[in-house]
Amino acid sequence: MTLSSISFNDSRIDLIGVVTHIIHTARDNRGVFAIFQIKVKRTKFVVVAEFGSMKSFPDVGDIWLVTGEHKTDNTYGSQFKAEKAHKLLPDKDTPLDVLADFLVFGAAFTGITRHYANKLVKVFGNNLYSTLEHASIDELTATKGMNLSKSIAHNLLNSWTKLADESELIEYFDAKGFPLELVETARQLFGKDAIELLNKNPYLLYPIISIKAPNRHWKELDRSIRKSFKIKKSDRRRAISFIESLLYSAYREHGHMALPIGTIIDALEESNISFSLNSINTQSDEFQTLCLNKDKSKIQILGHSAIEGTISFLLNKRVSLGETVQAFNTAEIDIVLSKSELSLERMTAQQIKAISNGLTKTLSFVDGPNNSGKKLIIQVIAEVLLNNGENLWLISSPSGDDGEYLSGIGKESVNTFINNSSKRNKADALKNSIVVVNDAHTIDALMFYKLLKCLPLSARLCFVGDHRKLPPVGPGYVFGQLISNKSELITHLKHQYGCAPDNLLTHISSSLLVKGNDEINKLPSANFTEIQDVSIYETKETSQEILSNIAANIWLEMYLNFNKSYQLICAHSALCDQINKHVQQLRFTKKNVISFTSNEKTYYEGEQVIFIRKNQYLKIQSGQMAIVYKVYDAPILLRGRECVLSIKVNHKLLDLTKDDLECLSFSYAINAYKVQSYKFENTILVLDNFYLISKSWLYTAINASRSSLIFIGDRDALNKKFNSTDFNRARYFGTPLELVG
């Protein structure tokens, strides 16, 4: 019997169609959730598959059978609520229209347009499936009425043949309870021997699972494997996979590139898994994934070890090249310094060394606290090099205010620079260049690796940062490791400028660098009738609801009294979201202000917003802050885009469409990681979670303010964090990054 693409079963409807668009997907301990669009004949349906109704995520081009009923949502309109949903592979009973859509939308069938799909249906009709199963390239190209080229026919039949392998693998995954979304990756990695290899070691699947929830994913996979393969608790394959889960979890949650052997042993014992770590390097494992470093008593993922090793090699390769140019004439440096009413005679020995290294060395590092002259050093290096016709590139945070001291010098984020490096290398644009990397402490290990890989060895590098600030969001801490080396290539700045003794804010910032002081206990209580340099609103409340209420009301109080906008900084992102909603309500509710609403978010003129993901069209990176400048009464057409509002970014106006708003979030309150390169006139620090607040967190947040600062929280707890010894929590690594010069 031939299936129909729409059939009825009691009160439920069965839809068989091809996925044309993925709207949203999610996974948690309840399973998989997805909202996607399928095409059934000439109609497209939005399918909502709740948790528990499906085993895997849909992909564009897949054939899916969904069982459920049509519902009307007050917000999203007509939807198909699926009680059950599962992926199908084409077979002899697949409806002809579905098979045609499968060829058109399937990513594997490159070159098969709607034109060719319609021809296939017209010429072969119900024999299309059989034809694709058995026909040769010559037979297809010789078929009257098709006019297929040999390349298109080859791609069509070759892609179709791969379906047979995928079909067998899907059946295997389904029988073993493995996540079906891993089928394609497993097929690509393991090839035709995928089933044989997974029978030997089913835990080979774990490294290709997303590390967003490494512990949960491992437990889910482990349950399926032990049930299907009867694997014992201390099986070597299981033990290695368990160690992988510990390492991926530490990598994801704490930024570690490795873990101490003792930590692994304790975890194995706690889970009653008997395993000798010494066997990792001595016993041959198919697809080895772990690396044991006995000298450093660390264990890590083999790939992470390779990344660290490559970083060390590429850095020292540059060091081995030695100086590429002779020292610059000091007169050239004095000319640049004179613009700031300075001269070499007034510079410290460390600052002169940093400038000299940046101008003459193939590799150099500058580390210094706030107000120690790092910006001046970058300015001098940049202008002297440009005056001498050198090929200079500046990498810096897109959110920073470098333009204030580097006018006329272009800058890029590290992501943008890496993305543009391929075409630049083809044009030899980076050959013999000098690359100055500001805020180098924010670059994680993987980004550091990519940066070094994309630059020719002839390029010279100068890294400038502050190890006291928060470490990178991603794993690893290359800059922090490197500046601990005793090398002439590294300059540690100490002297601080602009620390006026009569300004409590600069005094507090400087006091963070001194151990054992009583500055926090001397802070005055917040007085909202005047603007104070630094003050504290004392509360021992820790609930997000109460802290949100306090912070939002203080923000509004200062805004109404002094017409000044304070930047709120929190430790927990959830509190940021809560405060953002609260401030917006207090500021705009019941006021006649033009607004625009999209996806349950309302934007008013004057809103503080931040880009939470990069916008390719606008060429704006994640982390860039802006102000909603104007909300249009009605959408206006600009350069072929239907724009709904404009924002002001770095004194420039940009027009945004409704789709562009997906990149935005409100920014009255933001996490300290997002303020790394910003300077605000006034800030409010909400001390909401002292587990997340470190001395580096305080240092970063305090130094983000120019004029005034208000603490909200427990004075005693703040004092303890203020006087803690370490700026950064240790991040474990496997391969030490040591400079030979």
Write up what this structure looks like.
- With 741 residues, this protein is an alpha/beta fold.
- Helix 13 crosses helix 15.
- The relative contact order is 0.07.
| Number of strand elements | 27
* Terminal CA distance: 77 Å
Radius of gyration: 30 Å
Q: Could you describe the largest sheet, including whether it forms a barrel? A: 6 strands, parallel
Give structural attributes.
five-stranded mixed β-barrel; 23% strand; 741 residues; alpha/beta; globular
Topology of helices and strands:
Layout: E1 6-9, E2 12-28, E3 31-40, E4 43-49, E5 63-73, E6 77-88, H1 96-105, H2 114-124, H3 128-134, H4 137-142, H5 150-176, H6 183-190, H7 194-200, H8 214-229, H9 236-254, E7 259-260, H10 261-270, H11 279-282, E8 290-293, E9 298-301, H12 302-320, H13 330-338, H14 349-360, E10 363-367, H15 374-387, E11 392-395, E12 411-412, H16 414-426, E13 434-437, H17 445-454, E14 460-465, H18 478-482, E15 490-492, H19 504-511, E16 534-538, H20 544-562, E17 567-570, H21 573-588, E18 595-598, E19 601-604, E20 608-611, E21 625-638, E22 641-649, E23 652-657, E24 664-666, E25 669-671, E26 680-686, H22 695-702, E27 705-713, H23 715-722
Parallel strand pairs: 4-6, 10-14, 10-15, 11-12, 11-13, 13-14, 16-27, 17-25, 17-26, 26-27
Antiparallel strand pairs: 1-2, 2-3, 2-5, 3-4, 5-6, 7-9, 8-9, 18-19, 20-21, 20-24, 21-22, 22-23
